[in-house]
Amino acid sequence: MISLFSPHSRATFAGVCLSIGLLGLSPSLQAQEKPLLIEKINPQLYLYTTFNTFEGTKYAANAVYLITKKGVILFDTPWDSTQYQPLLDSIKQKHNLPVIAVYATHWHEDRAGGFAYYNRIGIPTYATKMTNDLLKANHKAQATHLVSTNKTYSVGGQSFVLNFFGAGHSMDNVVVWFPEYKILDGGCFIKSSEAQDLGFTADGDIKSWKPSLARLLAKYPEINMVIPGHDAWKDKGQIKRTEALLTGGH
Ligand SMILES: [Zn+2]
Q1: Rounded distance between C-alpha atoms, residue 111 and residue 79, angstroms
Q2: Does any domain span residue 149?
Q3: Ligand 1 centre and the CA of 121: distance in Å?
Q4: What is the β-pairing status of strands 183-187 and 175-178?
Q5: Phi, psi angle pair for 236, to nearest 5°
Q6: Total domain count, the chain
Q7: Predicted structure pTM score
Q8: What is the DSSP string of 39-55?
Q9: d(CA 157, ligand 1 centre) in Å
């Protein structure tokens, strides 16, 4: 894989895991001017998208939230910092529920960038020890609570598991599994079906990524839906595309 990043551009780009080979968004997203999109996956699980610009091109970051009887749980913070509060407001307006917890699937800006804000307003934030250690090492706000991997958490009638299958996009990337729905929120560990390359991998481990993904597939042989960290998420080609990119195919 040829790196598209010169060493000096890395600092600008650090903390993002999108696919640079994908020059822009799909036509439907290009037409979209709203900074925050919220779409229903099922009655309990919603996907939200925020945007950011790298070298003049706008990219989308996907994240999800889960509606429980006790409140709403965010899995990853908005990438666009102007949307940290509007996301809470939209959730309150749409579901009449507060956000009671915020999890991050790895330490980068498009996942954990909102920790400082949510910590400041008193919403508990959660990450694995590895993610918190990386946040600390990179002088970023850490989660206020540590989360265990491979453990089913049940909150307000809903459950989820954070799992770590090894390094890939980053050293700490975890995925979120929703067992009732067999839905996998892959974060940046999983590429979109339309991704043209692996994106920003300087903080990750490409050699480990493929065996890590194989461990995920062994653990979850039946998956109804896979949410990638960036770009198109409604079709079914995410895992195949990620495997192809890791094998060097296109
Ligand atoms: Zn990342």
Answers
A1: 7
A2: yes
A3: 25
A4: antiparallel
A5: -110, 10
A6: 1
A7: 0.88
A8: EESSSSEEEEEEEEEET
A9: 30
CA 204–ligand 1 middle distance (angstroms)? 9
Provide the residue-wise pLDDT of the chain in tens; the chain has 250 residues. 333 333 333 333 444 555 444 444 454 555 557 999 999 999 999 999 999 987 777 889 999 999 999 999 999 999 999 999 999 999 999 999 999 999 999 999 999 999 999 999 999 999 999 999 999 999 999 999 999 999 999 999 999 999 999 999 999 999 999 999 999 999 999 999 999 999 889 999 999 999 999 999 999 999 999 999 999 999 899 999 999 999 985 4
Q: 229: CA distance to ligand 1 center in Å?
A: 8
- Is residue 171, in this structure, part of any structural domain at all? yes
CATH number of the domain enclosing 141: 3.60.15.10
* 96 C-alpha to ligand 1 centroid (Å): 31
What's the 158 CA to ligand 1 centre distance in angstroms?
27
Residue 236 Cα to ligand 1 midpoint, Å, equals: 22
- Please check whether residue 2 lies inside any domain of the structure: no
Q: Are 146 and 126 in contact (CB under 8 A)?
A: yes
Please tell me the distance between residue 89's alpha carbon and the centre of ligand 1 in angstroms: 26
Amino acid identity at 5? F
Asked whether residue 216 is domain-assigned, the answer is: yes
Distance 112 CA to ligand 1 centre (A): 10
